[in-house]
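General statements about sequence and structure are easier to judge against a single worked case. No coordinates are needed to read the tokens, only the vocabulary itself. The sequence in question and its structure tokens are set out directly beneath this paragraph.
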Amino acid sequence: MVSVAFTGSSVPAFGPASPLFTLRPEIYLAANENYTPFDIAPDGSRFIMARAINEGPRRTAPLVVTENWSTELRRLTAPR
């Protein structure tokens, strides 16, 4: 994964690519699957990644549903 500076003027320009880190093959769920294991925040300041669990026999990961997580996140990250 790389970061590239972008200048959005009348003639868009891209800077050199700066490697952030290398993704290991087990990050992807399947070789031929159309799947992106990450998403970038709208402001470009952070991203979240998902990965498959490939340790031992194949098993199912639990599904956790959290309601109103954004409200809790705002509370926990608010300036103090």
